[in-house]
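Postdoc handover notes: sequence design on the structure in folder B. Input tokens:
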């Protein structure tokens, strides 16, 4: 079952990165494969959203519950759709250079066909998704002002993205 965890230092404040990730309704504007989002309900601490993702010939909609613990943690749990399960956690910790971001995702599709299809592109998909969030931070907040250019651990491609 695809699992990925990653740790990055981004040269923005934890509040900025938290707000960026929490803005689920904007995902279709910048996230690859995110075709549509419908926020079903929203409070300061939780939202329920239907996300439609598409890759290749596949297009699936699923509902997730997003728990917001501002500005430290965002937890995404699966409600209904094509998965057996989905767990996603973002943690934002202040760092001398900005924000230490810990990202974790673990899921399994009910369909063996979908599972096999995503298995082939999973690592590339996650890499592109992380890069999309970094680019989005630059679009919204401008060039990083804390610590350095693009964040410790960023690749040359991400610094130029």
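Designed sequence:
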């Amino acid at each position: 079952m695809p699992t990925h965890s990653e740790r990055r230092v981004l040269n923005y404040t934890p509040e900025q990165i938290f707000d960026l990730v929490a803005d689920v309704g904007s995902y279709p504007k910048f996230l690859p494969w995110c075709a549509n989002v419908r926020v079903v309900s929203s409070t300061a601490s939780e939202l329920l959203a239907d996300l439609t993702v598409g890759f290749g010939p596949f297009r699936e909609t699923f509902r997730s519950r997003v728990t917001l613990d501002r500005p430290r943690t965002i937890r995404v749990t699966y409600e209904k759709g094509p998965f057996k399960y989905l767990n996603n956690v973002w943690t934002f910790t202040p760092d001398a250079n900005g924000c230490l971001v810990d990202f974790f995702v673990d899921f399994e599709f009910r369909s063996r066909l979908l599972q096999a299809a995503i298995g082939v592109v999973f690592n590339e998909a996650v890499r592109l998704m992380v890069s999309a969030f970094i680019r989005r931070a630059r679009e919204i907040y401008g060039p990083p002002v804390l610590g350095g250019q693009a964040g410790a651990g960023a690749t040359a491609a991400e610094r130029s993205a």
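Context for whoever picks this up: Strands lie at 3-10, 34-42, 46-55, 58-69, 73-80, 83-95, 98-109. Don't rerun without checking with the PI first.
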